[in-house]
Amino acid sequence: MMNIQIKKFYYGDIPDSSPSSSNDVRSTENPWPLWEIFIRSKQGLDHKHAGSLHAADAQMAIENARDVYTRRQEGLSIWAVESKFIHASNPDDAEMFYEPSTDKVYRHPTFYDLPDEVKHM
Amino acid sequence: MSLHDLEKLFQEKIDKEIKIEPKDWMPDAYRKTNLRQISQHAHSEIVGMLPEGNWISRAPSLKRKAILIAKVQDEAGHGLYLYSAAETLGTSREQMIDDLHSGKAKYSSIFNYPTLTWADMGAVGWLVDGAAILNQVMLCRTSYGPYARAMVRICKEESFHQRQGFETLLVLSKGTDEQKAMCQDAINRWWWPSLMMFGPKDSESTNSDQSIKWKIKRKTNDELRQQFVDMIVEQVKLLGMTLPDPELKWNEDRKHYDFGEINWDEFWNVVKGNGPCNKQRLEARKKAHEEGEWVRAAALAFAEKRKNKLNTKAA
């Protein structure tokens, strides 16, 4: 084993002599808008939120979503919605907002006591 | 509600394993810690593409090349999942990228080591991704919802990375003497930096206590590192190779392997920017970003043009 020479490649794809001129310049570019991505994994199932991404327009959002979220056949259909159009309920109001349903147990089938003889119900 | 009450409620939620979502109230320090950790994690995925990208053009076969491209593409995807998760905490993509380029934000130091031979692709997959996976499996249960969801997605994809790495080394370990030597050499070079990936010792880590209380992390650096050592010591036997640590020894009392002291001077030196490739990595990222600027601008201009065209048609 002692005379074996291993050929080593030093990191070479990026040339060393390319000093970046704008080291500390802040980005002034106009950023691409943010999109929320929904994916249907299988015919018959709902579209489900997969995550978000940036894209210049809807077509690009769908193409990027294909690459970012469906590399392993996770989807058959993609919806892209620009994030600014999503309206959400306020988590601080959750108690007040959802509380009215907690005392309506009669909305659940288990509320009703039926004799065991009743079949198929 | 007073700040004190809000903090108490917040901790109660955490203790009850209720996930924190973007619009929920959270302490500033929780937001900041998550932001730092998630963006650092995202940067690591993106910078992590560079050492492997180095071998795409030199892969030994078309099969290996296709695998490597798929792996690097996954890493780009992982970076994007994580940037999106970080953005839910109120920062912007541009801000995070600026912070990376200015050196304000860090990324995992492991990517500041060079990939010198093809065997490094195996060692990176097996050891580096192996170490990352232990951390990421833990983070699937982290308390911040968007981060946890991103991690679940990432973990599903990551196991292919580790398996292909081990298989790459397995093939080399059964090859010619030169290939075997290359395999051992790569393991020797990547072993210690991989152990450093778990971060400073618990006794010296400043972030651990609070992160565990907030369930951002669920295991300490030392616990994860030990788990990694125990796992790899067994796996390396299957390769017929050795790990470069004479102090590695089974400890019957602890039921764990003891291992030698990490070179912490080297660790801090690389963190501070003096590793073998720190400069190239950042230059490569900046160059890519700057040279992509016209593409981003052109895409926006094209989108605008297309929108106007549609509007004219509709009118």
Features:
heterodimer, A: alpha+beta, Ubiquitin-like (UB roll), three-stranded antiparallel β-sheet, 2 helices, B: 315 residues, mainly alpha, two-stranded antiparallel ribbon, 13 helices
What would you note in describing this structure?
The complex is a heterodimer of chains A (121) and B (315). Chain A has 121 residues and is α+β, with helices and mostly antiparallel strands. Chain A has a domain at 30-111: Phenylacetic acid degradation B (Ubiquitin-like (UB roll)), CATH 3.10.20.520. Chain A is built from two helices and three strands; from the N terminus they run ββαβα. Chain A has a three-stranded antiparallel β-sheet with strand order 2-1-3, covered by helices on one side. By secondary structure, chain B is mostly helical. Helix content of chain B is 69%, strand content 2%. Chain B is built from 13 helices and two strands; from the N terminus they run H-H-H-H-H-H-H-H-H-H-E-E-H-H-H. A two-stranded antiparallel ribbon of chain B has the order 1-2. In chain B, a hairpin with a 4-residue loop joins strand 1 (249-251) and strand 2 (256-258). In chain B, helix 2 runs antiparallel to helix 4 (62-87), helix 6 packs parallel to helix 8 (177-196) and helix 6 runs antiparallel to helix 10 (221-239). The chains are: A alpha+beta (121), B mainly alpha (315). The interface between A and B is large, with 41 and 54 residues.
